Amino acid sequence: MASVKALVQSQDLKSLPSDYAHFKDSQKSIVAGPEVSLPVIDFSLLSSTNPDERAKVIEDLGKACEEWGFFMVVNHGIPENLINSLFNVCNEFFDMPEEEKLKFETTNPLYPVMVRSGSTIHDKSNQTVLFWRDYLRFFVHPEFYCPDKPQDFRDLISEYSQRTRDLACKLLQGISQSLGMEEDYIQKAMDLDHGTQIFAANYYPPCPQPELAIGIPPHTDHGLLTFLLQNGVGGLEIQHEGQWFHVNALPNSIFVNTADQLEVLSNGKYKSVWHRAVVNNEKTRITLVVPNGPSPDTIVTPAAPLLREAPAAYGPMKYMEYVNVQRVTRLHEKPLLDRLKLH
Ligand SMILES: O=C(O)CCC(=O)C(=O)O
Ligand SMILES: [Fe+2]
């Protein structure tokens, strides 16, 4: 299938092709949410030698997970030039000839490298609706995959994936402690030495009628923590206290959201945040997304130490099975996470 990028380039589009109309009439269209300021976590304080400073950042981290499920990490130590190079190389990837990219086209979520355009969803009447985005996704851990073009892609991804894995481990140590557990509880219980890490790049070209289209419809992410970078163009919205809010990034920050397996592990204390990507009619938006999850075979359950205080609120499920079932769950069906709830 042709990419959304090619569609935009091939025609002087004045209106949205009907396949991409998520909202059939402008009355029900997307209304951009108001902007909200998010909790900010200073990552450098997690390795502070001052116990009070460390205790404070762990408390802030716990609050951010409990009240928002979404925060920005600053002073994360990932070099700005690595991030800039990654955006450049991902842009080059989407600029490659269609035939090159389509080599990776598949609908099988287990393929290690996948390119898709306008991934389909089905609305209530079972009609297909396409997302206004092109998409590249591959597994980087426990096994490392990466397209071999453009040049330097592999090296950059390899470095970014190592650094973000380290960031995820350290944040999860703080999160373990914020739940009153041993620092390495999550690392051991989720087998993070073999943790699943994915790299995804979303490419949202300018859209002629952005209010009728959707980049990604509302969803929660599978995994523990997702990291997101954007190329300076906004579009991410999160649900907070029942309302949609637009979120914007501080310079040099990384967005982090709590995901489904962290909700299960924390026995519901930390909620997996609902979010969506809206599109605009002016600028191409690129986001680089790294979901960090348990090892593929980990059976995820609420953490044992938390069950002294309350009974388990979620049933067990193997992580990879969860990923696969979630992928075939349709928009109007009950979300998989809700189906795991025991009461
Ligand atoms: O691009 C965005 O802003 C959201 C991406 C996202 O939610 C995802 O890839 O899971
Ligand atoms: Fe997401």
Automatic annotation (TrEMBL):
One of its GO terms (molecular function) is metal ion binding. One of its GO terms (biological process) is coumarin biosynthetic process. InterPro entries: DIOX_N, IPNS-like_FE2OG_OXY, IPNS-like_sf, Oxoglu/Fe-dep_dioxygenase_dom, Plant_2OG-oxidoreductases. Residues 194-294 form the Fe2OG dioxygenase domain. Keywords: Dioxygenase, Iron, Metal-binding, Oxidoreductase. Gene3D superfamilies: B-lactam Antibiotic, Isopenicillin N Synthase, Chain (2.60.120.330). The keyword Oxidoreductase applies. The keyword Oxidoreductase applies. Belongs to the iron/ascorbate-dependent oxidoreductase family. This is 2-oxoglutarate-dependent dioxygenase 19. The gene is LOC113726610.
